[in-house]
Amino acid sequence: MNTLGNAGENAAAEFLKAKGYEIAARNYRSRFGEVDIIAKNREYLVFVEVKARKTGSMISGVEFIDRRKIAKITTTAGRYIASYESSLQPRFDVIILEIMPDGVLVREHIENAF
Fold it and tell me: Does residue 105 register a pLDDT over 90?
């Protein structure tokens, strides 16, 4: 993973922990794709896609989450659920980050994004 992506995922994981989520897995891979972060709270098993962009980027990270990306994430989430049974309801979130010269800023946490 590149430095930008690693810094972004670390910031997203810390953000979720501060909100009371438990991180169950990071960079979970199947032959179908990858889920950046898998987290739990009281009600949900949350599959999180993290999108980080440098300050001044002309394109929002959300614009890179197309149907193909969603299919990969949801299929990989299905594999995770099949391997690690849970009574929690699955949910798919997106965390948008801005990478600035002096750190990482969480811009938005979109719950139930798709």
Answer: no
